[in-house]
């Protein structure tokens, strides 16, 4: 007899299969990223129809077969379906999904990743923050979840907390005093962060999820943060995400 499980999750991708079916990829709290077959889900009146398209979140009851899952029932709790109606949001959401796919596996619980994606889509839908800022926040927190965070609260050499101009490199920062006393450090730590940019990054790393998307920044700080992320992810996340092409096109190629 096939085992039946109920998992909390969100649909990441959905593709048509045969005449009336779908194959979906679910990011679940309990079992990480799994793929499942949804029989009949493309028939309009089918009870699986609504809950098996991207950005639907809820309780998924599944039969577990030897190699894959089959969706038996869906109880949708939240739908982010309207994101698909806005082209810019769709581009960013596709990238957020690809990043979540990159970091999650089957049978490794993904409660942190699922919650972060959920809160991010929720705030994207509210449309208060600019999409490039949402992207920075999401990337920072995702990297932190993966144990790829960096020390941004104290100097790597003297360990003092310092909010003056700091120099960023692999692993974290050195303060201005250390950089002045050991001039060659400047070549190892070439990127200077302003106090406002540093404070913003510290906030992103330490804020509770419900307050994560509750601030905004000036255009100057935003472009400084983008420059920082480029350097940080270039070093710590050496992977080409194909969905970034859409964001580049969408922003006229100025975002990278
Ligand atoms: Zn120092």
Topology (SSEs and partners):
Blueprint: E1 3-17, E2 21-28, E3 32-38, E4 56-64, E5 69-79, H1 87-103, H2 111-126, H3 131-145, E6 151-155, E7 166-169, E8 172-175, H4 176-181, H5 185-188, E9 191-193, H6 195-206, H7 219-236, H8 244-250
Parallel strand pairs: 3-5, 6-8
Antiparallel strand pairs: 1-2, 1-4, 2-3, 4-5, 7-8, 7-9
This protein binds zinc ion.
Zinc ion binds near residues 155, 157, 160, 175 and 177.
Plain-language structure description:
With 256 residues, this protein is α+β, with helices and mostly antiparallel strands. The protein has helices at 87-103, 111-126, 131-145, 176-181, 185-188, 195-206, 219-236, 244-250; strands at residues 3-17, 21-28, 32-38, 56-64, 69-79, 151-155, 166-169, 172-175, 191-193. The protein has a domain at 3-82: OB fold (Dihydrolipoamide Acetyltransferase, E2P). The chain is built from 8 helices and 9 strands. The protein has a 5-stranded mixed beta barrel. The chain has a 4-stranded mixed beta sheet with strand order 6-8-7-9. Helix 1 (87-103) packs antiparallel against helix 2 (111-126) and helix 1 runs parallel beside helix 3. The longest helix has 18 residues, at 219-236. It is elongated, with a radius of gyration of 21 Å. It starts with a strand and ends in a 6-residue tail after the last helix. The site of zinc ion has 8 residues, from strand 8 and helix 4. The site of zinc ion (ZN) has 8 residues, from strand 8 and helix 4.
């Amino acid at each position: 007899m096939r085992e039946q499980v109920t998992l909390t999750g969100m649909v990441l991708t959905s593709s048509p299969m045969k005449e009336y079916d779908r194959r979906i990829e679910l990011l679940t709290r309990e079992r990480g990223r799994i793929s499942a077959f949804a029989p009949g889900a493309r028939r309009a009146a089918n009870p699986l129809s609504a809950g098996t398209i991207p950005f639907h979140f809820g309780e998924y009851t599944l039969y577990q077969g030897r190699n894959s899952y089959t969706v038996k029932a869906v109880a949708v709790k939240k739908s982010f379906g309207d994101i698909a109606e806005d082209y810019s949001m769709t581009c960013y959401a596709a990238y957020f999904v690809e990043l979540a796919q990159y970091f999650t596996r089957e049978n490794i619980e993904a409660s942190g990743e699922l919650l972060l994606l959920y809160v991010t889509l929720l705030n994207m839908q509210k449309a208060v923050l600019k999409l490039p800022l949402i992207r920075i926040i999401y990337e920072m927190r995702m990297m932190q979840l993966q144990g790829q965070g960096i020390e941004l609260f104290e100097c790597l050499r003297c360990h003092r907390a310092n909010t003056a101009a700091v120099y960023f490199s692999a692993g974290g920062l050195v303060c201005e005093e250390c950089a002045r006393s050991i001039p060659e450090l400047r070549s190892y730590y070439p990127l200077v962060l302003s106090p406002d940019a540093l404070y913003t990054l510290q906030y992103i790393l330490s804020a509770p999820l419900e307050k994560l998307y509750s601030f905004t920044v000036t255009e100057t700080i935003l472009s400084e943060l983008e420059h920082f992320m480029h350097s940080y992810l270039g070093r710590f996340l050496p992977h080409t995400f194909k969905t970034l092409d859409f964001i580049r096109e969408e922003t006229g190629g100025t975002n990278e």
